[in-house]
Amino acid sequence: MVTTTKQKVLFELLAHKGDWLSGDQLATDLAVSRESIWKAINALKKKAHQIESRKNLGYQYIETPFLDEDIVGYYMDKQLIDGMFVEKTVTSTQHLAKQYLTTHTVSKPVFFAAEAQSAGYGRRGRHFYSPATSGLYFTIVLPNTTDNWDQVGLLTTNMAVVIAQTLESFFPKETIDLKWVNDLFINNKKVGGIITEANVELESNSVSAFIMGVGLNLTTKDFPDELSDIAQSIDKSATLDRNLLLTTLIKNIIDTYYHGDFATLLTEYRRRSNVIGKHVTLKLGNQTIYGTAKQIASDGGLIIEDENGITKSFTSGEVIKTNVQ
């Protein structure tokens, strides 16, 4: 892949973030003309890269408010993935991933991220509010590496833990709870969700890959009226590098997928659970289960003791209500 002068200048500025680089220094280091540097800087500024210019000091990279494929590529370890796609506005990254799999076979993870989604969705097809510049919306395709379906049930729980831990490293003042099975919460309000779907090969009736979508409310200030009581951002006053957060999440997800300690992750999931010990209402198809959430099972299922004292483990369904006993 050919690297343009504009990309080379961007990468050089990122490599020296916080420092000043003179135009002459950049021209010398990149073996291009001083005029080429000037043109590249202006082109980057037109793409909303905030670069400060000062006489006798040169240039310093500040930030960009947008997801940027070049910056994501700069931070990303390309050996971990088969491909990456960073778009502006899409229907949903989950749709992009599914379309990709109709014409591609993956041997390594591939991910899709978007600045905004017009039809982002979670479990049961529920709409996920996805405004630009204040959230993170991405889908990662993970090639199936196991026929052990007990472990497959832990995929979402494992990823919920690593996503929560990664977010807390970027938002050190916050503590993230997990609502079984796929929602991230702060102060009893949802800040993010995960949806995991399987890509089934019809000829062999086997799962070739898992398609895991993640939607996160990072700094969103305003939510639609119907969401304002149930959703919030992690920290609406925070400033952070979303490109770095995206790549850190992707790297940590991939590392956990291939090398994670399932027992340790399950222990941490249980510790973060905001349903254990509470009266819950579980929606299971047309059935509604009422009872007390006793524990998260070893396969990631939710163990509920119902009103008759009968204990069962559920591997599907949605907790639609929780009450403290």
UniProtKB/TrEMBL annotation:
Root EC class: ligase
Binding site residues for biotin: Q117, K190
Reactions catalysed according to its record: biotin + L-lysyl-[protein] + ATP = N(6)-biotinyl-L-lysyl-[protein] + AMP + diphosphate + H(+)
Keyword DNA-binding: yes
Entry EC number(s): 6.3.4.15
SUPFAM superfamilies: C-terminal domain of transcriptional repressors (SSF50037), Class II aaRS and biotin synthetases (SSF55681), Winged helix' DNA-binding domain (SSF46785)
Purpose of the protein: Acts both as a biotin--[acetyl-CoA-carboxylase] ligase and a repressor.
HAMAP family in the record: Bifunct_BirA (MF_00978)
Family: Belongs to the biotin--protein ligase family.
Protein name: Bifunctional ligase/repressor BirA
Species of provenance: Weissella hellenica
